[in-house]
Design goal:
- The complex is a heterodimer of chains A (409) and B (338).
- Chain A is of the alpha/beta class and 409 residues long.
- Chain A contains 13 helices and 13 strands.
- In chain A, the strands form four sheets. A four-stranded parallel β-sheet of chain A has the order 3-2-4-5, with helices on both faces. A four-stranded parallel β-sheet of chain A has the order 7-6-8-9, with helices on both faces.
- With 338 residues, chain B is mainly alpha-helical.
- The chains are: A alpha/beta (409), B mainly alpha (338).
- At the A-B interface, strand 3, helix 3 and helix 4 of A face helix 3, strand 2 and helix 13 of B.
């Protein structure tokens, strides 16, 4: 069901406004299904139930943000109708919901559907139908493939970009490093590993002394850590999900292995990883981020953060402000609004993809200072910059320049 | 004797359904069939897709109905058979370039063998214990599909994209409509075969086992054989449904075949009426459409709304759609007499 109901009054006001202005503006108005003089229909698919339901917050934040946009007059006078469905993170259900959005609700685009398997399930369909599958909420690298899939575009820095950045740092600061890698044996872990190898280039074979993988089903990864220590490596690339990341940090300290420790952004949460592993065990670990951490006191007087807080106060007061997903949903919704504004009166699906592929140096309130959204006809990875951070005391300290690691799918 | 033992040893966990009550009358069947044939001409492709899924899940529920309603064995592992069928079809189509129609019998045979073999050790279990053993199978399946060893064929976590077939012989028909009629023909075939199976000697043996295992074996029914056979047939039909599901959805991934699917199918069977084969379609409609209705009522509480709706159904019509159909029949009979 439409999450945002339009009031008749708003409708007629917008109509009157359009009638008043349209006589002067002879600019051609072009629409595809789902767009009109008064409305833009945006579809979305989120796991509101099921194993990944924690991410459902993203959809709720987006809904709240579009409510704010509508209350402030909409986009070029058009209100956004945001239709968000639940797929419970089950690919067959995603296909059903995507078809419902495209064929029954007749949305203009499907925006920010979440998860790698659900997005993989609908990618072919969306491209066959030529309906934009815009700013998908997954970190896999394969979404940046404009040649094969010109109607699908990613959003956040992908996994490979991140390890490419770590590789750059290692080559610069520790060119004779011996790297031991621990990675989760699935698409996520392999994506990260590939980025590391690509980033190291020709030196990858000599620098990486061991690649050790673990299965998600293993209860503990202690034995892998012992094995990695035995190689005598002085750099540890920790590509693990939160539970295992905490185990690894703890075990490292227990057996007295103190390499230069890189922790992937997936597990950089202070609350769910570092704190359980012990602050004293996590000192000097290096990771990276691209969003502002709302719990970090250094953004207290930041303009972008203030805007975020004002938005939440008014439109989504029950949100948990420590949840990074709220910041994520806010930022990606801003990205979409930017694209829709740029489209002007030409709201065809083709023009939306064209505008989405010509974002230049866009800065958004939730992104770290200096991180910019950039796309082109051959670059479908909007955010590909990250900033390194080091764990000090009880929080992350950002350091160094903004680093970039563009890769294609 | 303790309460637990009571539950286990009391045989009729499934109510005895007489053979004749398992099917619809000829007239009603023809009306339902006509509706299923004509409806797609008037609706959008998306609705046709939903109707195709309705038939596919209907087949899977039917398969469970043969197992539970027919032979009295429980299974919470149908999602595993469904997954094996789906992957068999997907792998044969994408890696071996086989025609989609040919992959279905293979999926059925592979699943029949799988179900038959699984039924062997499961023979020693009954009632809740059997349900638990099959539950384990359903839990293990998504992880097995992710194993690196099979990744070359299964695509691992990424899954496999399946190409949707066009209508053959130059028929001017959308892919969705063709697939719907294709599924409909297979479903009718399996439905008729299932009814005949239950009316046959084997069917009578299934039901004898369901009603009283000891009495059945005393009458000369080979209990072990027929129990495993029921498992095999059920798994085989589920496999065909899985294969059709993969073609309709155009994608297979481990996350599509979790324990939730098995529970949905079980739910569909209960709502449709245990042991009443036409109810499978009603049960399938329940598991496809009611979650959407629940989501429409409240997004945040869709699970709770679904629970309330399910509770109402079980409370008001404990025998599911069969009960509704029987009441309707009686009312109709009264009206005609007047």
């Amino acid at each position: 069901m439409p999450a945002i109901h339009l009031r008749l009054g708003a409708f007629s006001a917008a109509l009157a406004l359009l009638a008043a202005t349209s006589s002067g503006a002879l600019a051609q108005k072009k629409y595809d299904v789902g767009a009109s003089d008064t409305e833009i229909k945006i579809g979305n698919i989120m796991p509101y139930s099921g194993p990944a339901s924690a991410y459902g917050v993203i959809g709720k934040t987006e809904e709240a943000y579009f409510r704010k946009i509508n209350a402030e007059g909409g986009i070029n006078g058009r209100k956004i109708t945001f239709i968000s469905y639940d797929d419970a993170y089950s690919p067959p259900k995603t296909v059903e919901q995507a078809r419902k959005l495209v064929e029954s609700d007749e949305v203009l685009i499907v925006f920010n559907p979440l998860g790698t398997p659900p997005n993989s399930a609908i990618q072919k369909y969306m491209n066959q139908k030529k309906v934009p599958q815009l700013f998908v909420a997954t970190g896999a690298t394969k979404w940046n493939d404009p040649k094969e899939f010109p109607w699908t575009m990613g959003w956040q820095p992908n996994y490979q970009s991140e390890t490419i950045i770590y590789a750059k740092y290692i080559l610069k600061n520790k060119p004779d490093a011996k790297i031991a890698v621990l990675y989760q044996n699935d698409d996520y872990g392999k994506d990260y590993l590939k980025g590391l190898k690509d980033g190291l280039g020709a030196k990858a074979a000599s620098m990486i002394v061991m690649e050790e993988s673990y299965e998600v089903s293993e209860p503990t990864i202690d034995s892998h850590i012992v094995k990695l220590k035995a190689t005598g490596a002085d750099v540890f690339m920790n590509i693990t999900t939160p539970k295992f990341a905490a185990q690894a940090i703890k075990k490292n300290m227990e057996i007295g292995w103190r390499p230069l420790h890189f922790l992937n952004n997936v597990s950089a949460s202070v609350g769910s990883v570092i704190k359980p592993a012990g602050f004293e065990n996590a000192q000097d670990i290096i990771s990276s981020n691209y969003l502002k951490d709302p719990t970090d006191p250094q953004w207290k007087n930041d303009a972008g953060m203030k805007g975020w807080n004002e938005f939440l106060d008014k439109y989504y007061p029950e949100a948990n402000r420590a949840d990074a997903s709220v910041m994520y949903g806010y930022t990606v919704a801003q990205g979409l609004v930017h694209v829709l504004k740029a489209c002007g009166d030409n709201l065809t699906r083709e023009n939306i993809m064209k505008q989405a592929a010509s974002i230049k140096e866009l800065e958004l309130g939730g992104l770290l200072p200096g991180i910019k959204v950039n796309t082109s006809a051959t670059d479908f990875a909007p955010i590909s910059q990250l900033q390194l951070m080091k764990f000090k005391g009880e929080g992350w300290d950002l350091f160094g320049d903004i680093l970039s690691g563009d890769v294609g799918g | 004797m303790s309460a637990v033992e009571d539950v286990v040893t009391e045989a009729p966990a499934v109510e005895a359904v007489p053979k004749r009550a398992m099917t619809l009358g000829l007239g009603t069947s023809l009306v339902v069939l006509a509706a299923l044939v004509i409806a797609p001409i008037f609706v959008k492709n998306f609705i046709i897709f939903q109707m195709t899924m309705l038939l596919i899940y209907g087949l899977a529920v039917l398969a469970l109905n043969i197992l539970t309603g027919g032979s009295g064995q429980f299974s919470l592992g149908q999602s595993a058979f469904y997954a094996v069928g789906a992957y068999t079809s997907a792998i044969l189509m994408e890696h071996a370039n086989m025609n989609y129609a040919l992959t279905l019998p293979i999926a059925g045979i592979v699943c029949f063998a799988f179900g038959y073999l699984f039924g062997k050790p499961a023979l020693r279990l009954s009632g809740v214990y059997l349900a638990l053993a099959t539950f384990a199978l359903a839990t293990a399946m998504p992880q097995l599909l992710k194993l690196g060893f099979f990744e070359h064929w299964t695509g691992g976590v990424q899954g496999l994209v399946v190409t949707k077939p066009d209508a053959p012989f130059g028929l001017k028909m959308s892919q969705d409509m063709w697939l719907y009629y294709f599924t409909l023909v297979i479903s009718i075939g399996i439905y008729i075969a299932s009814i005949n199976l239950l009316r046959s000697r084997s069917g009578r043996a299934f039901m004898a086992i369901r009603d009283n295992e000891i009495a059945a074996s005393a009458m000369g029914v080979n209990v072990a054989l027929y129990k495993t056979l029921a498992f095999g047939v059920s798994a085989g039909i589920t496999g065909v449904a899985g294969g059709l599901g993969a073609i309709a959805v155009q994608f297979v991934a481990p996350d599509g075949y979790t324990i939730l699917l098995a529970i949905s199918l079980f739910l569909g069977m209960v709502v449709g009426g245990v042991g009443w084969l036409p109810g499978s379609l009603v049960g399938s409609a329940f598991i496809i459409f009611v979650p959407n209705i629940a989501e429409g009522i409240s997004k945040g509480l869709s699970g709770a709304v679904f629970g309330v709706l399910l509770f109402l159904v079980i409370f008001l019509v404990p025998h599911g759609a069969r009960q509704v159909a029987m009441v309707a029949q009686q009312l109709l009979g009264k009206m005609i007499k007047k």
